[in-house]
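lol ok so funny story. i was supposed to be doing the assay writeup but got distracted and ended up predicting the structure for this chain instead. priorities right. anyway since i did it might as well share w the group, maybe its usefull for someone
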Amino acid sequence: MSGDNDMDSLPLPSAVPVFPLTGALLFPRGLLPLNIFEPRYLAMVRDAMEAKGAANRIIGMIQPRAGGSETPPLYEVGCLGRISDFRETEDGRILIALVGVSRFRVAAELDRTTLYRQVMTDYLGFQGDRDEPDPLSAAARASLEEVLRSYLDTQGLAADWDAVKGADDEALVTTLACVCPFDPAEKQALLEAETLARRADTLTTLMAFAQGPDGRGPGSLPDGPMLN
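and the output, tada:
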């Protein structure tokens, strides 16, 4: 879950190509693997690899809002990702990994001149995204782990608790925010939480709510690096 330190001092691009993908979250210093196969996003990745300056190897991950149109409206906040791994397959796909750099707000969508969408970016309010966050309080960390344990029990899943206990606060919160099967609006709330502490609090609340009043809520949690 660690980012690329080389990005810390680089300027952020004023416009980025965006990959609208429901349920896919990228956080600063987080890691997101992607399997690219649609022609428009193959073009986007190749263009990003060849871009100059601050836009080099940068794409924006953002969730689309509900709607069946070809170009659904976007949520206001997404996250820049730097392509840290790039591999082309024999069947024409591109496998990439993105490292989260900074969240951004969509200032405006650019007129379409490419197969993919592009937006102007506003980083106001996210200036601290490239700094290491303050750790959680002992009480917040304990509450998160307690609710996680009961949440997994209601899902019939187990966890590698040595890995959970050994994970730093940001890695644990980011992993859970990405793999828990929350709806898009809930995931967006996690992305937009101002601080790590607020994100952990939101995550704890969502996991508790998902268990329902009888502690037997529906749903399942996909496997993640700390789950089995």
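The beta strands are 15-20, 31-36, 58-62, 77-88, 94-109, 117-122. The helical segments are 39-50, 138-155, 161-166, 169-179, 184-192, 196-210.
back to the writeup now i swear
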